[in-house]
Specification:
Blueprint lengths: L4 H9 L8 H17 L9 E5 L9 H7 L3 H10 L4 H7 L9 H15 L4 E6 L7 E5 L2 E5 L11 E11 L2 E13 L5 E8 L8 E3 L2 E2 L4 H4 L11 H28 L7 H4 E6 L6 H11 L4 H11 E4 L10 E3 H7 L4 H14 L13 E3 H7 L4 E3 L2 H11 L1 H6 L4 E3 L6 H7 L2 H11 L20 H26 L8 E6 L8 H16 L8 E6 L7 H18 L2 H4 L2 E6 L4 H7 L5 E4 L11 H7 L3 E4 L5 H8 L5 E2 L4 H10 L4 H7 L1 H9 L3 H4 L4 H13 L9 H17 L1 H13 L6 H13 L3
Parallel strand pairs: 1-2, 1-10, 2-7, 10-11, 11-14, 14-15, 16-17, 16-19, 17-18, 19-20, 20-21
Antiparallel strand pairs: 3-4, 5-6, 6-7, 8-9, 12-13
Helix pairs in contact: 1-2, 2-5, 3-17, 6-33, 8-10, 10-11, 19-32, 20-21, 20-28, 21-30, 27-28
The structure holds pyridoxal-5'-phosphate.
């Protein structure tokens, strides 16, 4: 950059920084980043990636952009000299929460790694006016509020590009907004977000409810509008088609501008379909190619060679199936193509289970993806194996060459450099700065696993981070915790398969044990962060039970000294960045076979937490790398779980009847202490579910969880250096889980960019 950062910022502010407000400085920083990012845009030569995703859970961008542009230290120091604090200025930045959880955060990490590796790869998504709802606790329950993030000045810039998109017979104009994505010492790519000019926040009628009928006003108002009624489900199809139709038109226009004849589209574009939400891009591209004079068979071949599909889950509820009547209503122009694709798929197999349109008129989006893309990948080794051997076995028989695994990853720039400067500085002083771009170099820490001075410093860093978190919790929600306690954290979406209820039963068990005089080896602060989908009753019941138990414990001084529950309100990327560096024990306790990968597990490991987890998702690969002495594994194996489902012989009631500890914990939910503060209806429903249904098999893993967690607490309390050594090994072995590695593998096996 010409001139110093302070001269440049002064110029952008139009006044000396000492006299500028934080807001003026923030706007100057936005422009500075924009200008420098623009200088790093490279012309695209070969094939370019388009990553289409309904979600991009970006989080705040200012600090990350400053780090990636190599300006962070200079800006921070310059601001300090002139009476500002970068952390205060970050507070002014609204948070784009355009995603639910792991899947959306993965898309954001991938954009960072693409730009860092200097690969040409843009995102395509929607410019939702409100991201995932803002969570507020009232009377021990979750309530949902809109979370608008758009302001006049922001990262996403309006362009003059609009594409016509026909929805239910009406043509809408989709406007392109662009957000620069900077790489670390790398290039700049774009996140392309589409929106309608007519969308109007005044149709929100209270909370996150809105008038669902006026599509021109509500189309991009919310990420995942409530789909408990038909209008809401139709709205999701409207959104998906807006995204893929405008996206497909953008892709074709960009490729044609570079000389593509469309017959050679696969030489210019690679399209990654992130889960099934963007699947309609397949028939839409075929439609657009046919419009431009290409025959159906060739169009199918072109699209198959251009597109690839990532499967993110084996939960049946998430494998989208739309009634064909919905598609006929919203996208009648696609139905003839989908029918032709179905007919073609049926010629490739007489196995009805691989058809696109089933006998009841359900259109299976994942089936269309697998037939008409050249690659289907799972997101962790175990997940891909389960896809091949059970969930998608019939497809694997048909197309063994299409199936491959790409274990998820996280960007180390956000999840280490930005969120944990203390640890970053220590690692750099021990092994130099190379790990920031070459994550594998973290293994250079391994020889220090017995170095007392290093381990003590790591312990000191964790302690300082825990003190920071304690301060934040007190300021944010008045929760006071002792940083000398062990911090265990379970932060992720609330879902029964992730089993926050298992942690709940453990905490109730400890409540009884402490009252009986059986003290744990160290006080425990159990921290949660989780949003439940607004219509997901049992998930909300679990939140209510945890909040109620937390209050019960707080009013029981003899227990409170040993055990505390803090539920962080409105878990989002910013909260994650505060919580993860302060974690001792990372709770990754999903029912084996159900968590496709997880990426929270990787973030915690990288920040020196030890995992307590089941052999599920990427936990399996973490365990392989760190070795069994550096992770606490418990519970049924995925094979046992799958077998139990196949046999259909799981009866929660038998486990409840057989184990007095379990019975005591479950009965406590509707005992007098809880009912004095909580809702009988909600707590009763949760107790009933655990006793009589428990679809995600919490009870069979209860005892193993108690034992293993007890062991972790004892190790932490009795051998602090041994514990730090485990933490160091986890950091050293985290390199594999960099999204730079994941993206390099996608490029090597699927995309072949540049
Ligand atoms: C990483 C992340 C997730 C994913 O967490 P999992 O434990 O993998 O489910 C969800 N939400 C936020 C805000 C995240 O940063």
């Amino acid at each position: 950059m010409n001139g110093s950062v302070s001269e440049k910022l002064t110029q952008l502010c139009g006044k000396p920084l000492e006299r500028a407000t934080d807001r003026e400085v923030y706007l100057a920083l936005l422009r500075l980043v924009e200008e420098l990012a623009g200088q790093r845009v490279e012309p695209v030569r070969g094939r370019k990636l388009y990553y289409i995703s309904a979600e991009f859970l970006m989080g705040k961008l200012l600090s990350n952009n400053l780090i990636n542009l190599g300006l962070y230290d200079q800006v921070r120091d310059c601001l300090e000299r002139t009476g500002h604090r970068l952390s205060d200025i970050e507070e002014l930045e609204p948070e784009p929460s355009l995603g639910n959880g792991g899947l959306g955060r993965l898309a954001a990490c991938f954009l960072d790694s693409l730009a860092t590796l200097n690969l040409p790869g843009d995102g395509i998504g929607l410019r939702y006016h409100c991201g995932l709802f803002r969570q507020k606790f009232a009377d021990g329950r979750q309530t949902e509020l809109p979370d608008p993030w758009l302001t006049d000045e922001g990262w996403a810039k309006r362009t003059d590009t609009v594409y016509p998109v026909e929805l239910a017979g009406t043509v809408y104009q989709a406007r392109l907004y662009r957000l620069a994505v900077t790489g670390y010492n790398g290039g700049t790519n774009q996140l392309n977000l589409f929106d309608l000019d007519t969308v109007d926040e005044s149709v929100i009628t209270g909370g996150i409810a809105m008038d669902k009928t006026c599509v021109d006003k509500n189309l991009t108002l919310f990420l995942y509008p409530d789909d408990s009624d038909e209008a809401g489900r139709l709205l999701r199809i409207y959104q998906q088609y807006l995204m893929v139709s405008a996206g497909a038109q953008l892709i074709l226009a960009e490729c044609e501008a570079r000389g593509c004849t469309l017959h050679d589209l696969p030489d210019y574009a690679a399209i990654q379909i992130n889960d099934t939400h963007p699947s309609m891009v397949i028939p839409e591209l075929i439609r657009l190619l046919e419009q431009r004079g290409i025959g159906f068979d060739e169009a199918v071949d072109i699209v198959t060679r251009t597109c690839a599909y990532t499967n993110h889950t084996i939960l049946a509820e998430a494998l989208e199936t739309w009634p064909r009547t919905y598609l006929e209503q919203v996208v009648p122009q696609l139905m003839p193509i989908i029918q032709q694709l179905d007919a073609l798929a049926r010629t490739r197999s007489d196995d009805g289970t691989t058809a696109i349109i089933d006998d009841r008129g359900g259109v299976h989006m994942a089936h269309m993806d697998i037939h008409f893309t050249h690659s289907t990948n799972g997101v962790a080794a175990l997940h891909t194996e389960i896809l091949k051997s059970s969930e998608l076995a019939n497809f694997y028989k048909l197309y063994p060459e299409k199936f491959n695994n790409k274990t998820n990853g996280i960007t180390f720039r956000r999840w280490l450099l930005a969120c944990n400067p203390r640890l970053t500085g220590e690692i750099e002083s021990l092994i130099g700065p190379g790990f920031k771009q070459g994550a594998g170099q973290l293994e250079g820490l391994l020889p220090l696993a017995r170095d007392r001075a290093v381990l003590e410093r790591l312990g000191g860093i964790k302690r300082a981070n825990k003190e920071d978190l304690a301060r934040w919790l007190e300021e944010k929600q008045g929760a006071r915790v002792d940083p000398a306690a062990m911090f265990s954290i379970q932060s992720k979406r609330l879902h029964a398969y992730k089993r926050q209820q298992l942690n709940l039963l453990y905490l109730i068990h400890q409540y009884f044990e402490i009252q009986a005089g059986h003290m744990p080896p160290v006080p425990l602060v159990s921290i949660f962060g989780a949003k439940a989908a607004p219509a997901y009753t049992i998930a909300k019941d679990i939140i209510h039970a945890l909040l109620t138990l937390s209050a019960v414990i707080d009013e029981t001084p003899e227990v409170r000294q040993w055990l505390q529950i803090v539920f962080v309100e409105n878990y989002n990327v910013t909260a994650a960045e505060k919580m993860i560096p302060a974690c001792d024990l990372s709770e990754q306790i999903s029912l084996a076979s159900k968590e496709a990968s997880g990426t929270g597990n990787m973030k915690f490991m990288l920040n020196g937490a030890v995992t307590l987890g089941t052999m599920d998702g990427a936990n399996v690969e973490i365990a392989q790398r760190v070795g069994e002495e550096n992770i606490y594994i418990f519970g049924q194996s995925s094979g046992q779980v799958i077998h139990r489902y196949d046999a259909g012989d799981y009866r929660a009631r038998e486990w409840y009847d057989a184990d007095p500890n379990l019975r005591r914990a479950i009965d406590f939910l509707t005992g007098p202490e809880m009912l004095a503060r909580g809702s009988a209806e909600s707590l009763g429903r949760l107790r009933d579910d655990l006793m009589n249904s428990d679809w995600f098999q919490t009870l069979p893993d209860f005892n193993a969880y108690l034992v293993r967690k007890g062991q972790a607490l004892a190790d932490y309390a009795h051998d602090p250096l041994g514990w730090q050594s485990k933490c160091l090994t986890n950091i050293a072995k985290a390199g594999y889980f960099s999204s730079d590695r994941t993206i390099a593998e996608y490029d090597r096996d699927i995309w072949h960019l540049g």
